[in-house]
Design brief:
disordered N terminus, about 30% strand, alpha+beta, 4 helices, about 375 residues, four-stranded antiparallel β-sheet
């Protein structure tokens, strides 16, 4: 059944924002791999349309702040990490040497002379709480730019992070708002049309599917099951694989595959760069011996998948620029509807100062692919 009138139905909105505009606040966003950050190196990122400086100090702690000096707008990431007389490490602006501590407070303005009294600590740049979890760096983005406390949630933790360093990392930027990127990522029906490879599946191999779903922390999961018979890539794992696919807002999707005692975790992180771009980071961990011999093939296949999805995003943009109504149907688009419900509830719970109540209810979804 169609969701709403076929002529006027719009995709549901998130809070007061229209689908495809704005971002969730008061939540952790994936920013980088821990290995991306070297001690003492300042690095510039763009998150949610804002420039963000992320760096690891020489003690190994990760910090993040707005990458704009409040004096003359020079990027702080072009400066240096230096040490003050009291041993604190601070970021020095490349333009006039203004220095800022890890909390964003200004510690010194070199151009001031002795008789020019000024409380430099009142000069601040926005500070973003940052944390590392399982080799991943997350940044907490508050809905209040003046937020100076501790995040109300711990960063995500994933089952199946095994085998040391990731076996595969691939990155790509989609020319799409995170809402469209997420909905495309969780879409179960596009595979036979967008990803037609002999080693995966084809349009001719479609059949009816029924999968159990249940609510999970800030999201939902397709509960553990045997992979579909027309998903040939699982054959390289041998044995009798079981898989579970989980989604969590704002944009984390992971598939945890077990084959006996062996595991494969494929994590896809969607990070909004700005209103029209979303960074996709694909990370795979595994202790399965297949990755010793087949890693180049797996990496090649993953790159193909991402780029095929990217090509479809570009094609979809040809229609989206006319701001059309979007018609979502059950059950193939139920996960997309859940995503919007999760966003609305997350925003409402933060505004009202109450615990988040997951709106997803357990269900069996059916579609053909």
């Amino acid at each position: 059944m169609a969701d709403g009138d076929t002529k006027t139905a719009k995709a549901p909105a998130a809070g007061d924002a229209k689908f495809g505009r704005g971002f969730l606040g008061d939540i952790w966003y994936f920013a980088a791999l821990s290995s991306d950050l070297k001690p003492g190196k300042l690095q510039r990122y763009e998150l949610l349309g804002e420039p963000v400086l992320i760096y690891r100090d020489r003690k190994g702690v990760v910090h993040a702040m707005r990458d704009i000096c409040p004096h003359r707008a020079a990027p702080l990431s072009a400066g240096v990490l230096t040490t003050e007389a009291d041993g604190r490490e601070v970021v020095a602006c490349p333009y006039h040497g203004w220095r800022f501590g890890a909390d964003g407070a200004c510690t010194a303005i070199p151009s001031l002379v002795a008789e020019q009294a000024m409380d430099t600590s009142r000069v601040r740049v926005r500070h973003y709480p940052a944390a590392e979890s399982q080799g991943l760096v997350f940044v907490w983005v508050s809905s209040d730019p003046r937020f100076d406390g501790e995040p109300s949630e711990l960063p995500p933790v994933f089952d199946g992070v095994v085998g040391g360093a990731p076996k595969l990392v691939d990155r790509m930027v989609f020319d799409a708002h995170i809402d469209h990127a997420v909905v495309g990522l969780m879409d179960p029906a596009h595979g036979p049309y967008v990803h037609q490879q002999w080693w995966w599946r084809s349009a001719k191999s479609q059949h009816d599917k029924a999968k159990k779903f249940e609510p999970r922390e800030a999201g939902f999961a397709m509960v553990r099951h045997e992979p579909s018979k027309n998903s040939r890539a699982y054959a390289i794992l041998g044995g009798e694989p079981l898989t579970e696919i989980t989604f969590r807002i704002p944009g984390l999707r992971w598939e945890h595959v077990t084959v006996g005692k062996r595991q494969v975790l494929s994590l896809t992180c969607l990070t909004p760069v700005n209103e029209t771009q979303t960074k996709i980071t694909q990370i795979v961990w595994s202790d399965h011996p297949a990755f010793v011999f087949l890693k180049p093939f797996v990496a090649w296949g993953a790159r193909i998948f991402l780029r095929q999805d990217g090509d479809m995003v570009n094609l979809q943009n040809e229609g989206l620029r006319y701001d059309p109504s979007l018609l979502w149907i059950d059950d193939a688009d139920r996960q997309a509807k859940w995503y919007q419900q999760l966003k609305r509830e997350w925003t409402a719970s933060r505004k009202e100062g109450r615990p988040f109540r997951n709106p997803v209810e357990a269900a069996v979804l059916k579609w053909r692919s």
